[in-house]
Amino acid sequence: MQLFYNPDLDKSITQFTFSQEESRHIVKVLRKKEGDVLHITNGKGYIFESEILLADQKRCKAQIVSTQKKHAKAHWLHIVVAPTKNNDRLEWFLEKATEIGVNEITPIFCDRSERKIIKKERLEKVIQSAMKQSLRTYLPKLNDAISFKDFMEQEQNGLLFIAHCEEEEKVDLKRRVAPDRDITILIGPEGDFSQNEISRAYEKGFLPVSLGEYRLRTETAAIVACATVNMINNG
Q1: Could you state one GO cellular component term attached to this entry (predicted)?
Q2: Which residue in 95, 163, 170 sits closest to 129, CA to CA?
Q3: pLDDT digit string, tens, across residues 102-143
Q4: 3-69 topology per CATH
Q5: Contact 209/130 with Cβ under 8 angstroms?
Q6: Residues 77, 78, 82, 83: is their CA dihedral positive or negative?
Q7: Which string of DSSP letters, residue by residue, matches 71-100?
Q8: Please, what is the end-to-end C-alpha distance for the chain in angstroms?
Q9: The architecture CATH gives domain 77-234
């Protein structure tokens, strides 16, 4: 099955027209014709089965023939990660985290961050593409980038963890994670969190966790965190 994305679809819609970009891809690249069946998600859990009414490269029109709602999982995984200096590594993380099952991502600027600007529109497209490729029906939420200080002012719920490289006693993340619980995990920049940031996180209830015996790149650490939580919730 190939999955398309249209955030404007809901159960009340019976016919719709794809964007010009999607229309061209469907008709010219995939060579779909009238009567062919397509599957679309709105990123909110629904899969719409549709039949092409008009195979036009500029305005491909389709009719909804059936609708299915997939239930969301009981847990919610929020990864708060410092953008990497190399933007390709950040995009790689977003792609793989979406495939694994992250629910929410917040880019965070820290004392030692080497990147202070991100292009959210580009990153959202990476997430959308990964959602379609992995046949997910829920689009992960990408928040606006925020400073560490401002993030710490926000109210956080569920299990709260911070992964840092300071030499101190930590418990493996897999031993901290409980199934069917909301989880927020802080992942720092290439230069790690500063001591002030670590102390502030502790004050806000974040617990230190280990992601393994070796030092990991930022994007690798974030992926390990995603995979660990996914494993505990699907084991």
Answers
A1: cytoplasm
A2: 95
A3: 999 999 999 999 888 899 999 999 999 999 999 999 999 999
A4: Ribosomal Protein L25; Chain P (2.40.240)
A5: no
A6: positive
A7: PPPS--EEEEEPPPSSHHHHHHHHHHHHHH
A8: 26
A9: 3-Layer(aba) Sandwich (3.40)
